[in-house]
Amino acid sequence: MRIFEHIVFDLDGTLVDSRRDLTAAVNHVLRSFGMPELPLETVCQYIGEGARVLVQRALGPAQQARLDEGLRLFLAYYGAHLLDDTRPYDGIPEALAALAERGVVLSVLTNKPVAMSRAILDGLGLLSRFVAVAGGDSLPARKPDPGGVDYLLATTHTSRERTLLVGDSLIDMKTANAARVAFCGVAWGLRRADLVAARVERMIDRPKQLVPMVELGRA
User: Fold this and answer.
1) Which 3 state secondary structure label does DSSP give 87?
2) Which residues are part of the catalytic machinery?
3) Whose C-alpha in 29, 32, 114, 210 is 20 to 30 A from the C-alpha of 150?
């Protein structure tokens, strides 16, 4: 008997490495406004709470009057360049296949707009692995609000006690805590240092460790 029957995955920094495409879209906005571009490392620190927050942080306090126009420019550019450089992390396709073979229910919960999220997963050949995908515009509130997990539990008819949320950030950890589901951090994402500092109970270094995590509750 498996410990977990349902895995809820974060998207950016967990399933896919989208850093370069997100950075390109942010810098498109900044160039459009005659502002200096930001390095990838800086943009990575702004990712995780949805497109509006990403653009807001990139513009900085002095440029907030341009936020709505900046968000429009960002979404238009990013929507046309979703898969320029975005790829699954090494081992993710194989791990998803192994989990599916074991009958584990898989879903995605992200703060990225749902249409973009599904387009990325579809373009990378991963969408069929997931029973449900919830994005930042799917529900009234986004992560770390627990509503997304509640929605996925209801959609998949799985139990809270046997659900594991897998993510790369403290936002994901807070979401799991708020939803009263188990959490597993990933070391390959954007926020490894934050998770280490938070001393998360479960942490994996490679996607293939998800199989023993599901079966035994540990890697």
Assistant:
1) strand
2) 10
3) 210
